[in-house]
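does this look right to u?? NDP version
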Amino acid sequence: MPTFDFDLFVIGGGSGGVRAARMAAQHGARVGLAEAAELGGTCVNVGCIPKKLYSYAAGYAESFEESAGYGWKLPEAPQFDWAYLKTQRAKEISRLNGVYASLLMNSGVTLVTGWAQLVDGHTIEVDGKRHTARHLLVATGGTPYVPEMPGREHIVTSDAMFDLAPFPKRLLVVGGGYIACEFASIFNGLGAKVTQLHRRAHLLTGFDDDVRQFVANEMGKAGIEVRLNVEVASIARGSHGLVVTLARGQQVEADTVLFATGRVPNTQGLGLEAAGVALDERGAIAVDAHYRSSVPSIYAVGDVSTRVQLTPVALAEAMVVVDALFGKGKRALDYEYIPTAVFTHPNIGTCGYTELDARARFGEVAVFSTEFKSLRHTLSGRGERTFMKLVVHKATDRVVGLHMVGADAGEIVQGFAVAMRAGATKALFDSTVGIHPTAAEEFVTMREPMPG
Ligand code: NDP
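got this back:
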């Protein structure tokens, strides 16, 4: 039996890597983890957490405005201090970096600071020092992708958005996915003049078509100029800011241009080739249903193997690996009915199939939907509306799609996701008593299917 320094060595201290390291150590494994940057990965440092904090910051602008309808008289117009928000965010993120370090240390994980490279299926090297392990886990995440184009050097990606200086008065966002829509909403709320350009006829490819149209309309009402079917040809620095030239020749000026055009797996410089780890056609580490790569001792979870790029999915994948290697044994993760939210203003929350996908997968479906002004906005004066939709498989009555655009949609959909995974039928939704007065109660009071 060969002897190894560690039972498991993890490359990457983001959501998936830290979870795997910590839980493996709690099972008694000897675990090492290498990270070259701050602990916490994308989610903690330049993703979910700072994004959500800034989304809250943006939400206050709406609340100040709305409060007048409820009798609040603000002595003067509220002023927003971007530098202060950045400082507060940085403090919180560094507190979280510390929490991650303590979690690892308290579980007995050996933290190795530096860039790790695979040497072979059981050996990694960090700053010239070699470590061996029975199992290796690559959890190095992803990084923003920016298409090649003239003037590409002038743009920023989501990584830079949290620390922009100065605050961009005019922000141009390119892309129509999660990150583009969220930053467009955030900076619009914080006071920037935001233009969002997307190459397709609708934002948010992959979401339910009604949701896509509804949210674009709400984002427009909130002040974002959403321009669809538009492609960028080049970017140049002009005398009054950046000049973005579109494929059809028009020009748009902005102080900051954000490209949120997708993310690619972080596979460069890891020695994957040397170790014989195969990549798939998208450049992600190819893994089987148990996250094992082409080298049996090397596993990969999270964005570097890109099944679904969501923090909770990386955590769940990490747990599957730990259970297989050190815990209860082999099992596979169920990727059906993973709920997700987009923190636009208003939020999108969704679980299960879009209407289109449900028709393709299940055949006959019944669709229930509603659109209304929430009680809050009767006095707030805001014209924001809420949209909800259920897609029901006719043959079984199972609710296979649940979609919402509205305040707190992310919070609301989480609970419904449990019911949907349990196979809840429309009849069960109907027999559930609503909580009044809430927006969420509409999910259990929709009675009439849409015609067709
Ligand atoms: P997405 O894949 O969601 O969106 C990428 C967008 O860029 C799409 O609109 C895509 O258009 C467009 N695009 C791609 N290539 C080009 C190009 N060459 N020119 C113009 N537009 C282009 O990626 P994001 O970067 O927004 O986010 C990455 C992932 O991170 C998400 O898919 C999600 O899984 C995760 N995430 C989750 C969040 C959450 O849970 N709230 C928040 C942020 C990210 P098209 O539609 O045509 O493909």
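The chain has three domains: 6-142+264-326, 152-260, 340-444. idk if thats expected tbh
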